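hey so i finally got around to running both of the ones u sent me last week. sorry it took forever, my laptop kept dying halfway thru and i had to restart like 3 times lol. anyway pasting them below in the order u listed, first the sequence line then the structure token line for each. didnt double check formatting much so if smth looks off just lmk and ill redo it

first one:
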Amino acid sequence: MKLQILSIAALMLLTTTAAASAPIAPEAARSDAAPHVESFDVERSANNLLVTMQLDFTSLKLKSDREITYVPVLSAEDSRIELPRVVVAGRNRYIQNLRHGDLPDDALLCRTGKTVDYSAVVPYEPWIETAVLSLEEQECECGVTSASSRSYRLASLDFTEKVFSPAYLFVTPSAELEKIRNARGSAYIDFPVNRTEIQTGYRRNPEELQKIRNTIDTLRSDADIRIVSVSIEGFASPEGPYDNNERLAKGRTKALADYLRGLYTFDPSVMRTTWVAEDWDSLRRYVAKSEIACKQEILSIIDMTDLAPDAREWRLKTTCPEQYRFLLDNVYPGLRHSDYAVEYVIRSYADVEEIKAVMKSAPQKLSLHEMNIVAQSLEPGSDEYCEVFEVAVRMYPDDAVANLNAANIALGRGELERAAGYLSKAGDTPEAVYARGILAAKRGDYALAAGLFGQASEAGIVQAAEAAAQLREMGLIGQK
């Protein structure tokens, strides 16, 4: 049977409940020393409460015809249980009690100057969980009980269930001086063979050109956004002479830039262009992920960067002719593309209500710092509070701070697998190490938790030492 134990190992001097710091006044027939309690323990099982202690009366002196009764009492609000009493008597009173047997059957009788080993078992009731255990004293002379009494507090019991409840550390994101963002995409503009001019109605061009216009138009129409650059990088595929491919990549990139300049009145410094004559990198990525025959031979040829591009292309064509034809027909068309990136600045927000409105309509416009402003205005642990951090990690899925804060929310909810996923991207700061300690403890890996709490504590996380202390108090990890 599992026992809960409340123990006071050190010697205790009993004090009165009425004036805990006041000395006990001596009486003519008594010493001025209060009773002492040693080896005091309270153990709880499912059905009973066991109280053991050693009562030291060696300093107590009484007249021969006097006695003092000590009654251990459990009390809480209107509930009360008296445990078996201890009667300490002078010589004559001690003899009289032995002869007449007037004491209750469970009472303990002893002479002054003695030490009593006391133990008592009482049925456990729910209200005892936080009861006070006291020792009440009544004095009697010649069979007459004094009207005065004293009560000494032994202990305040606490058998409430111990639950691991660590503090969660949320990290405040740094404020961005300027919120710079990028909208990126790829357009596959079709050009007639060896031509560089754009024909807007040719093949897929209406849809591909519309993708770029939609990106720019959406940003230009937002009053909170200012476009700072539009970058276009054109690519050609590796077949044919390198010089011609370079001409095509450069000319087609310029044609797309001129097309956009004709639609928008951008400052000349806004539009930026670069080009890549042959997109070997994209070709390699495709082959590496594919199950194409001669895969390793093809990759080896692609990686021969010491060869001139035309020589590489010729070796690929002659070494794996069947696979080369497949790549030429099915992969090379996708290597002729124009990547675009629109860089823009979003204005900052400071008003909590405005940030809340933006979070509902366009959370991608907010920085982590701005979202944190909202979180600080909400009740910690509330649904709204938790939602802020969940939105933050959706908008910034690779940000360490966003993942750490989202992990704390998941840990608080007991969603351990989600927490583990977030913590895998939370970095290795002391706060992240501490959070991983919490996860380990909640998973029942207390040895790992203790180690992680130790690392975090050494790094200055005070809460880590407190969490480890909780585990020690619950008996889940060893004492230091």
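and the second one:
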Amino acid sequence: MRSSMDVAENVASASALISRAAAEGAGFIATPEMTSLLVSKAQDLFGKVREEKDDPALEAFRTLAAEKQVWLLIGSIAIRLSAEKVANRSFLLSPSGEIVARYDKIHMFDVDLAGGESYRESKNYEAGREAALVRLPWGRLGLTICYDVRFPHLYRTLAQAGADFLAVPAAFTKQTGEAHWHTLLKARAIETGCFVMAPAQGGKHECGRVTYGHSLIIAPWGEIVAEAAHDEPGVILAEIDTALIAEARGRVPSLGHDRGFGLPAIDAPRQAS
């Protein structure tokens, strides 16, 4: 997607892509982070966000999931928590349109990039505190969002709790995406033996932000099985062979090999040999 500052416009764009994916046979469909609204300024954010019970995008997507009879992961919607804070929240919707899981982004993107780009997500967003793992007809799905991908312990925890698939909806900056997007996502797949599904925002947005695009679906051995080769809005599809999960974990059973260890003392004197 290339979400704008207009919620209705974004809902219409996302709905068209979701409908296209459903028509092409998808049973599970995922959209990027900030599906319904992508803004840069706080006044634009707080002027448009709603509480979950009043959010028009969420209601529209629940109706669409039921209409298309698909499992639908809305990568995230900005949900008002208070006058000062918003949640960056994923919603997993069932084929009946019910909300079966929620996940609030845990790790806040607070960085200064070369060229003057600066982000302070924690200024307006409340960080989540709990991981989320939910059962689908094909296995268990672990929910994460964007910057979470730089914290591998979250993904290993989800895998050891039973995750077969990991969702990483994102709005990666072009600069960090070009450097790290493919590497990070492939690493998360390899070290967990999970399929990774990463729908992404891409291109120059109305608010001025530029995102990387290149939505990806990655197999447990690290192979890219589907990729958006550009930053234009569209749909990528893949058939998921769940047997590959056990195969990858059988070849490298590292999930069962974790060992506790103590941290080294800083500047500890070396023992004489």
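quick thing i noticed on the 2nd:
The mean pLDDT is 95.
anyway thats it, ttyl
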